[in-house]
Amino acid sequence: MKIDINSDMGEGFGVYQLCDDAALMEVVSSANIACGFHAGDPAIMTRMVRLAHAHGVGIGAHPGFPDRQGFGRKELPYCPEEICQQVIYQIGALRAIAQAEGARVAHVSFHAAMGTMINRDDALAAQVMRAIAHIDPTLIIFSQPDTLIERAAAAAGLPTLTLFLADRAYDANGRLVPRGVPGAVITGEQAVRARVRQFLHQGTVTTLEGERLPIRARSILIHSDTPGSVELARQVRSEINANGDSIAPAAEVLAQ
């Protein structure tokens, strides 16, 4: 079976860099590239596109709110039309850079607070997905399974790929545990490897409460701002290979 490994990348600004994007690009199969609002700038975006293109990594837009200080994690009071405009603007910027480099944008993965707001409002989710479908109906929407984003994307005729987060804890309802809660971010090698093995073998994750929860996903997300993210991605890739599965970009996973 083909499994995608995706990561949020290019989340620096100017001379500031969040992680070793070049090293991470050698491990992942899909890159969610910050588009200049919560992080990123034209130079960083171009560098990420070039790296992804050179390594055969799928290129994705990672739109977020214009909130550098809060890293896009603060919910901001934008109306639905403004959020749609921001999504379209960011996808368009990355598509232009990719086209100039002889590459193409294949997917969209929403960042932090923007994704949270879209995912809890049926009307907003539908409006955003219709806007994306007008841009390119082949864009793959990354989402967690059984969410408003997944359903709205499908209703708009957009392909979807659902995610498992190897470095974040889940609660009994299948939601991510807030980052401020102890144990919400998982960094230990053995814990990460065990979670990936459980996901691959059983299709489940053990929640923070100790319950086993089914997870329907074909892509594993690594947050680049998690401490040791490059090594974390290598551990995930190692477990996938050990299980006899192969790593492939989102488009290839869906084509299987």
TrEMBL record:
Keywords in alphabetical order: ATP-binding, Hydrolase, Nucleotide-binding
Keyword Ligase: no
Family matches, as Pfam families: LamB_YcsF (PF03746)
Matches recorded under InterPro entries: Glyco_hydro/deAcase_b/a-brl, LamB/YcsF/PxpA-like
Reactions accelerated catalytically: 5-oxo-L-proline + ATP + 2 H2O = L-glutamate + ADP + phosphate + H(+)
GO biological process: carbohydrate metabolic process
Binding partners and assembly: Forms a complex composed of PxpA, PxpB and PxpC.
Family: Belongs to the LamB/PxpA family.
HAMAP family: PxpA (MF_00691)
Function recorded in the entry: Catalyzes the cleavage of 5-oxoproline to form L-glutamate coupled to the hydrolysis of ATP to ADP and inorganic phosphate.
Name by which UniProt lists this protein: 5-oxoprolinase subunit A
Source organism per UniProt: Chimaeribacter arupi
Taxon lineage: Bacteria, Pseudomonadati, Pseudomonadota, Gammaproteobacteria, Enterobacterales
